[in-house]
Amino acid sequence: MPSPSYHKTSLGFADWVIFALAAIILLFGLYFIIGGVWLIWLGGSWYYVLCGIVLFLSGFYLFCRRPLGAWLYLLAWAATIPWTIYEVGFDWWGWLPRLFGPTLLAIPVVISLLFLIRKQREYPHA
């Protein structure tokens, strides 16, 4: 029996969860870009603008249901660790506000990555 054809319009629960995750990441990206430009104007770090661009791209690719979106988020998360060390050293209380939220968001991103990779293998031309 032939496998059912995949239509880009056939969306399951996981797809809707990924869309919601993409929207959250896009909004964070825009917030970081706008706030980062303000910080640069005040003489601050370029980190927020650069991270915001990566987050915005991550959200965009997640909306397109591409694994690249999850990988970009994880790249931004990983880059936040050396930035945190640079900013506050190894002070645990300085790490908490910089990494707690992004790490919580990384959990559904990793789960979505597993779904997106499986879906890409099943439907490579979708």
TrEMBL record:
The chain crosses the membrane at residues 12-40, 46-64, 71-93, 99-117. Keywords: Membrane, Transmembrane, Transmembrane helix. This is Glycerol dehydrogenase. It comes from Bombella saccharophila.
